[in-house]
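lol ok so funny story. i was supposed to be doing the assay writeup but got distracted and ended up predicting the structure for this chain instead. priorities right. anyway since i did it might as well share w the group, maybe its usefull for someone
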Amino acid sequence: QVQLVESGGGLVQAGGSLRLSCAASGRTFSLYAMGWFRQAPGKEREFVAAVTWGVGRVYYADSVKGRFTISRDGARNTVYLQMNSLKPEDTAVYYCAANTMGGTIRYTRDYNHWGQGTQVTVSS
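and the output, tada:
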């Protein structure tokens, strides 16, 4: 099992920045990729960004490309999401997820471990 703990959410004005962190523990040697998803009220959970653990290849949703940056620290088993130029439509609960199975990494079904989520609220 892999346990995930997110931190760094909060309230920020439009145009501001936040940095989310997600620390993994447990069977971290089995990590293939880690990703961030978000879910706004009344909407489905959607892909935000992902990074493969070995090579460090990154993937982004079109809606955040150029504003968000995902990175990883292998020594700390931690993934980060730097969010800049935040917009009110970025408001959501952000979830960290881990994939220990391989394959694709853009869909919720690709992940078998999830964090508890952290609220990000962007005011206009």
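The longest strand covers residues 18-26. The two ends are 40 Å apart (CA to CA).
back to the writeup now i swear
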